Amino acid sequence: MCELCVKEEYPDRDTLCVEQGSYMINFVKCSSCGQQGLRTSNRKCNDSEEEELITYEHVCSSCEHVIAQHEYTFKVDGDFQIYEMSCLLCGSAEDQRSIMPVDPRGPAM
């Protein structure tokens, strides 16, 4: 992972957890070749009964320099769906959503 390629390391994305894509506004340029193109590589999805884990790398489309490793997790815990994301480029985020028609915690503030 390369801190020189991003504006901010692990920006706080609040509850925005994404399983694909790139947060391009946080990408400066490739520190190896100076280009600004990105692509994803080595995408893996490990799906079990307990959780779904998706991982992939953000790499420079010109020189294959690894910019960041993206990790997204989804699981169900009781009456809640839990989402988590961690990536140097895309940021860190967590979210919980009730699986019930009406959230037992009440309305979101």
TrEMBL record:
The gene is LOC100533408. Keywords: Activator, Developmental protein, Metal-binding, Transcription, Transcription regulation, Zinc. This is Protein Churchill. The keyword Cell division does not apply. GO terms for biological process: fibroblast growth factor receptor signaling pathway; positive regulation of DNA-templated transcription. InterPro entries: Churchill_sf (IPR038543), Transcrpt_activator_Churchill (IPR009508). The keyword Transcription applies. Belongs to the Churchill family. One of its GO terms (molecular function) is zinc ion binding. It holds the Pfam family Churchill.
